[in-house]
Amino acid sequence: MTLPLYLGLPMWANQDWQGSLYARHAKSDLLSDYASVFSSVEGNTTFYSGAPKAETIAAWARQAPAHFRFCFKLPASVTHDQRLTNLDDVWGFLTALTPLHDRLGPTMVQLPRDFGPNELPQLEALLKGWPGHLPCAVEVRHPDFFHKGAAEKALNQLLITYCANRVMLDVRPVFSTPANGHLGLAHAQQEKPKLPLHVLSTGNFPVIRFIGHIDKTINTGYFAPWKAQLKLWISQGKTPFLFVHTADNLESPDMARTLYNALGELTCLPPLNAFPGETQNQLF
After folding, report:
1. What is the DSSP letter of 44?
2. pLDDT at 284
């Protein structure tokens, strides 16, 4: 089953969501509960620690429903340390995920901030060898790729040629106000790159990483133009992936639901299930 849009968060294992998304005394294994509400997830753990153990992957394959999509990140050892010069490690990583190949959304290639135009040949070698049955998304952070000049045109043409998706990192909400002493907001502003938002789809699976503010009204304001854009892509037969963060991620499940429901006012989307934690709260 293919959904018109996949909605997810930056992770599923977050104990701060107990009592809201999850039951107050939820078990450490939370993927099944998460997947009962959300249809996708960013696989950030693989960026830091590489491919999980085979038994872990097998457990995820058992717990995730058929419609669910994992969007893992290539390990930083491949993208940042080796700078895409050892593709055997890439193919080994994708091979390790074989039990989940029917449930992989775009695997994300998050490149270093100093990975610039002169290294596009390494990216092209990666995309040229990428397995055709697995979608890919590329997130660039070098300023030259945001100036609408020759470097950005070359990048976009490369992605279009290989039907790879350019990740759209929307950091406008989180940088919209000073942190004013809020530690979570200050940390997010320090961690996330302050880059322009260029809205374009270079493949069939547009990927949006929406980095929200702690103020919900700010988030809904910045998300408003996305509704028409997402509706357009869906009408064109594309399948967007929307990942919702908030500055400290405490409110990201609720914010994701709010934005999804707002989008549902414009286009036909299946309703989200109730949060397991909220259902339990109603029972007791």
Report:
1. T
2. 46
Indicate yes or no: pTM above 0.85: yes
Section 74-93 average pLDDT: 97
Helix (H, G, I), strand (E, B) or coil at 227: helix
- Label the pairing between strands 241-245 and 207-211: parallel
Nearest to 240 by CA among 227, 253, 251: 227
Here the CATH number for the domain that contains residue 59 is 3.20.20.410
Length of the chain: 284
**Would you tell me how many other CB atoms lie within 10 Å of the CB of residue 94?**
19
Structural domain tally of the chain? Answer: 1
Q: Is residue 53 part of a domain?
A: yes
* Residues sharing a CB contact under 8 Å with residue 56, sequence separation 6 or more, in sequence order: none
In the sheet where 40-43 sits, what is the strand order? Answer: 69-72, 40-43, 6-9, 241-245, 207-211, 168-170
